[in-house]
Structure formats: C-alpha cells, structure tokens
C-alpha cells in the first residue's frame, strides 16, 4: 500500500526506535451501506503508532476520523459496514480477522477508549465507584495482575481489590476526596470531572493503546487544558500509544507528538507535529490552518475552504480533495496520490504539494 | 445602543422537601457594560458563568431582579407589551446549533418569513412582499432562490447557519445577539460564517453582541470584550488590550489555557 514508507527501524529515524509499531492500520478500506448506496468512507487509511506516541487525527466532520477509531476498537457494525482490503495489525495480530469473542478481551483492556460526551457514557443510575469496579473486575478476570491478586483469590477479595484500584485511579486523575466520591452518582460530578472519571475508567485496565475521540470538545478551555495535561502525564507513565481524534488543531499542537490529517477517508499528510504544522505541504492542511483565527490573523483575513466534503457514495476520481483545491490540475484526476516522504518522517499524499517554506 | 446597568438576577434555590428551599442562586451580579452602535462586543465566559442568563435578560425572556437594561435609550422593563413587541423586531438572535433551532418540518421560506408574520402589524408586509424579502435575504447570506422551498435537512451545517442568520436579519434588526454562532461548525465553515457576519455588519450597519467561549474567535471578530465569571464581569476593555495585557488573574488563566497553534520549526 505504502511503498514510500521505509522499513521500520531505519537509521536516523525518530529517537525511540520501535521495531514494529504497536498499531499498524495498513491500507484500510471500509464501505458503509446507506440509502443512497454504498459509501466508500475509508479509502486506504494508513497509520503507524508506536508506544509513547500521541497521534492527533484531524480533519473536517465526515472525513472518517471517528470510523478509523471505531474500526480499531472493532465497534463498526458489519453490516452496514463492510471492510475491503487492508489490515489493522495490533501487537502482531490482525484485528479484522478476530471474532467478537477474541476481540472482547482486547477491547477496554488492551485498547482503551474515551468518547466525546462524558454524560452519555456513564450510567446515571449507578454509583461511579460501582461502574469503575465493574471495569476493574472485568480487566482483572483477564489479567489478574491488574488487581494484584493470586489467581485463586475469592470473589470478596477481588471486589475489595477492584474497589481499591478504582479509588487509586480516581486519585490519579485528581478527583479530590476520591475515596468518598466513589459512592456518588455521575450527576454529582461536573463535566470535567466526569471526563476525568472516564479517563480513569479507560486507563484502569492499563491499555497499551488509547483511542480518544474528541475527549475535550464538550469541555471549557480551562478544564480542557487540565484533561490534556493529565493525558500527557499518563502517556509518559504507562508508555501508551494514543490516537487522539479531534478537529481542533490547537489541541493537536499542544498535546500530540505526531499528527495525521485526514480528508474524505484517507490520510493526506502525516508526520511529527512540529514539522507538519510549521511547514504543511498538503493544500488541505494549509487550508485548515488558514481557517483558524490566530493572534496574527487580521480582521477579514480568515479563509474558509470552499465547497464541502464530497459525497462518498460517488467520490471524486483521483485526489479526493481536488474539487476544492486551488492547486488542482489534470494530473490530480488520475490515480489517488499515495503518501510520499518529503522530509524525514513527514509524508504527504499530493500531486502538487507546497514547498517547505 | 445597548446599556446594562448593574444587572442582577437571582434564581430561587431548588426545593428540598416540602417547604424548604436551598440557598438562592445569584446568576448575575452587578453586570454593567454598554454596546456602541456599529461595534462587535464580545461576551466571553465558561459554561455556568451566566452568559445565557444575560442573553435571556436582554431579550426580555427573563426579568432581571436588579438593575436596568436600556436599548436605544429606552428602559426595557418599562415598555408596554405592544412597545416591547415592536422592539423585539429590532433585536434578533442567532443560536448556536442550527440543527436544533430550525424546525425540520418547515421550508426555508417558512422559516425565514416567520418573523415577518409574527411582526406583521408593525412591518405590514403581504405574502408576496414577504417571499420577496426572503429571497433577498437568502441572496445576502449566499444562498439562492432555488433553496426557498427546501427543508433544513437538505442543507449542510454551514448553510443551515446561514438560514439562521437570514431569519434573524429579515426584520431588519439593529442589534444581533450571536450566541455561539459557530461552535457547532467545522473550522473551514466557521471561517466562512465569520467572514459573512463581518461583511453583513459593514453592509447593513449592524451591531453585534457576540457570545462565545472560544477565545480565538472572540479575538478575531470583536472590538471590545467583557469577561464574565460566576455571574460577574471580571474584566472588560478593548479586545487587543485584553488579549495582549490581561489585568486580572482569571483572564490570565483563561488565556493561558487557550490552545494555540504557534509552532516554530
């Protein structure tokens, strides 16, 4: 799929030389059935995540960011979804070849998830502590060392250990008076605290990979800053890999080590966050940055991106961004451009990329 | 144009049992600012800071418990019901979520002309004139007459917000309250809507009260800004001054938390 990418562990590559990435989404294709026909929503998504890396996945609504995340957690229902070519290799095994029974021990345990809205992801009827204990027990059932118990421990012992772990996790995400708050219901927490509870819940099984889909979009800026700082701290401590799905490039700039820009079902540019944001090569990445008001933007200096994300039932032939692109020419209407390296790990999929200026 | 003088709003506490009530909630306290004709005045605050209560007070959907709100010199609380109805045509609002604020069962024509129907006594337009006005407004916000008889679900988020703006402008208001008009939109579309608002402001001589929690947007569009926190204005002044040299601790924390893209290679 991705001929331009060098073999893993090439010399002079990033400082942490991971031999095989923890997660390799390898040319993934996904179709979704809809009333209008089958939409080609993921068209060869290619991503590699190593431990300790925080990848931001950005793009407009409807570009397939969330579906990429859901595919990794195997939460896309098939049908209406249908996978075509491609693999999702997580720690050596192709997730798409596993059946539900084989995925269950991975999901939530080795692959943690956080979603956008903290209110809808906590059950309002149960105490927060009970919900955390359930997750801890489920994780403990698969890997007893999480609860710190011998395999033959009794149910009561396991419950007590799970509760202890739940309290410790709430402390880790800085819920004040954590032990007492285990007995509170979700409505007794503020929005930011609920999101921190969900982070605690996602991290309780010590996942190797965390999928965070718009984790701070519903939060105020000051709370957002706290949650993101916490996330970074947890990454450093557990050496997780994180896929942070967001539409906010500011969040990416502040939090991520790497960024992948997605448009209409494909990665159009990816690389270390500073390299990509300081010198974006793909016209779409540039356009996204120009649409963002910054300190230096004069009044009236914002530029929107004309047009909308294309209809993926009948996607444009060739480069899918071409119909909205000022640089598009005849060459863009041929085959879809593949990712090619421009500088080090910085790659772009474009026939007419911008220069490094 | 719009003046707020020590506006306060107290809500009674929640019921706790049969006769007892919790402590009353002071949603707004001593809020004073004035919006000048032709400017864009920003109101920034986090959730729960009192932004929405303040909007509701300005629209007279809620009676403030203290202070005065004056629009073009007239005290809103003292207006007769008829005068208030006339005045409502002069203050219009654009809501955050066009998906939620446009009736899915009404055509664009009906959505945009509804305010004209509501205010038909003071505006006195017949059906034909109302349709003409709707077409004119759609043109103004970058849509065309071919969109007139379509329904909201046939439009993208950005187009829906344009319909919301057309509806707000149809009664020729002087003041527009923009309540998080772009937070439900993608940045690419947000930029288009912000540019449209800027352009309309100049062409129609509008005044904006722009309510948002997005500091980057506020900095980009507003001439002056007031920061509201726990129902009080903690700082107000020229936008450039607040963003470059915030005076209060709260303003500094808020600005520090702002996620900015400024990367140096």
Strand order of the largest sheet of chain A: 7-8-9-3-10-11-13-12
CATH topology of the largest domain in chain A: Rossmann fold
Mean pLDDT of chain B: 89
CATH class of chain B: Alpha Beta
Number of strands of chain A: 13
Number of domains of chain B: 1
CATH architecture of the largest domain in chain A: 3-Layer(aba) Sandwich
Shape of chain A: globular
Distance between the termini of chain B: 47 Å
Total helical elements of chain B: 11
Largest sheet of chain B: 6 strands, mixed
CATH topology of chain B: Rossmann fold
What is the string of SSEs of chain B from the N terminus onward? Answer: EEEHEEHEHHHHHEHEHEEHH
Assigned CATH superfamily of the largest domain in chain A: P-loop containing nucleotide triphosphate hydrolases
**Structural class given helices, strands, pairing of chain A?**
alpha/beta
Structural class of chain B: alpha/beta
Largest sheet of chain A: 8 strands, mixed
Beta-strand content bin of chain A: 15-25%
DSSP summary: helix tally of chain A: 10
Low-confidence stretches of chain A: 1-18
Describe the structure.
The complex is a heterodimer of chains A (357) and B (265). With 357 residues, chain A is an alpha/beta fold. Chain A has 10 helices and 13 strands. Chain A has helices at residues 65-72, 100-103, 128-142, 155-172, 178-181, 191-203, 221-238, 249-255, 273-278, 283-290, and strands spanning 23-34, 37-49, 54-58, 81-83, 87-90, 93-94, 111-114, 209-213, 241-245, 258-263, 266-272, 340-343, 346-348. In chain A, helix 4 crosses helix 6 (191-203) and helix 6 packs parallel to helix 7. Chain A starts with 22 loop residues before the first strand and ends in a 9-residue tail after the last strand. Chain B has 11 helices and 10 strands. Chains A and B meet through helix 7, helix 8, helix 9 and helix 10 of A and helix 8, helix 9 and helix 11 of B.
């Amino acid at each position: 799929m991705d001929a331009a990418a060098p073999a893993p562990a090439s010399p002079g590559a990033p400082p942490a030389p991971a031999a095989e990435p923890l997660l390799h989404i390898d040319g993934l294709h996904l179709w979704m059935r809809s009333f209008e026909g089958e939409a080609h929503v993921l068209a060869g998504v290619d991503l590699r995540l190593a431990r300790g890396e925080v990848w931001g996945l950005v793009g407009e609504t409807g570009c397939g960011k969330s579906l990429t995340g859901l595919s990794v957690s195997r939460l896309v229902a098939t049908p209406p979804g249908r996978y075509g070519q491609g693999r999702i290799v997580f720690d050596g095994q192709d997730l798409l070849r596993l059946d539900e029974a084989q995925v269950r021990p991975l999901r939530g345990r080795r692959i943690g998830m956080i979603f956008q809205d903290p209110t809808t992801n906590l059950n309002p009827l149960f105490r927060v502590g009970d919900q955390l204990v359930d997750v801890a027990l489920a994780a403990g059932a698969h890997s007893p060392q999480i609860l710190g118990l011998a395999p033959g421990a009794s149910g009561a012992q396991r419950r007590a250990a799970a509760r202890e772990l739940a309290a410790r996790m709430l402390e880790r995400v800085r819920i004040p008076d954590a032990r007492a708050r285990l007995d509170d219901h979700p409505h007794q927490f503020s929005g930011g605290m609920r999101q921190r509870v969900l982070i605690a819940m996602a991290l309780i099984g010590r996942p190797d990979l965390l999928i965070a889909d718009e984790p701070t979009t519903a939060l105020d800026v000051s709370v957002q800053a706290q949650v993101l700082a916490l996330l970074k701290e947890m990454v450093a401590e557990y050496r997780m890999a994180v896929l942070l799905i967001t539409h906010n490039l500011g969040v990416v700039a502040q939090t991520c080590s790497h960024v992948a820009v997605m448009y209409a079902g494909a990665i159009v540019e990816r690389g270390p966050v500073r390299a990509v944001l300081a010198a974006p090569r793909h016209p779409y990445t540039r356009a996204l940055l120009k649409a963002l008001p910054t300190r230096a933007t004069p009044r009236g200096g914002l530029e929107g991106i004309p047009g909308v994300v294309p209809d993926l039932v009948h996607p444009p032939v060739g480069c899918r961004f071409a119909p909205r692109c000022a640089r598009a020419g005849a060459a863009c209407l041929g085959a879809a451009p593949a990712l090619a390296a421009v500088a080090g790990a910085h790659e772009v999929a474009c026939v007419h990329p911008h220069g490094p200026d | 144009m719009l003046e707020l003088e020590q506006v306060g709003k107290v809500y009674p506490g929640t019921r706790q049992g049969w006769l007892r009530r919790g402590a009353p909630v002071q949603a707004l306290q001593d809020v004073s600012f004035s919006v000048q004709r032709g400017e864009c005045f920003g109101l920034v605050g986090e959730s729960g800071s009192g932004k929405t209560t303040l909007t509701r007070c300005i629209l007279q959907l809620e009676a403030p418990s203290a202070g005065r709100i004056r629009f073009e010199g007239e005290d809103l609380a003292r207006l007769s019901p008829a005068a208030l109805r006339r005045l409502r045509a002069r203050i219009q609002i654009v809501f955050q979520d066009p998906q939620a604020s446009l009736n899915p069962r009404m055509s664009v024509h009906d959505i945009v002309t509804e305010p004209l129907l509501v205010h038909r006594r003071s505006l006195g337009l017949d059906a034909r004139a109302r349709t003409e006005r709707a077409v004119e407004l759609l043109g103004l916000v970058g849509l065309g007459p071919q969109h007139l008889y379509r329904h909201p679900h046939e439009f993208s988020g950005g187009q829906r917000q344009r319909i919301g703006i057309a509806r707000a402008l149809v009664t020729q208001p002087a003041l527009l309250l923009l309540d998080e008009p772009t937070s439900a939109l993608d940045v690419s579309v947000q930029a288009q809507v912000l540019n449209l608002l800027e352009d309309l402001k100049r062409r129609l001589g509008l005044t904006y009260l722009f309510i948002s929690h997005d500091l980057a947007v506020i900095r980009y569009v507003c001439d002056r800004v007031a920061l509201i926190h726990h129902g009080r204005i903690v700082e107000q002044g020229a936008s450039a001054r607040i963003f470059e040299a915030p005076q209060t601790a709260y303003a500094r924390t808020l600005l520090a938390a702002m996620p900015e893209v400024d990367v140096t290679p």
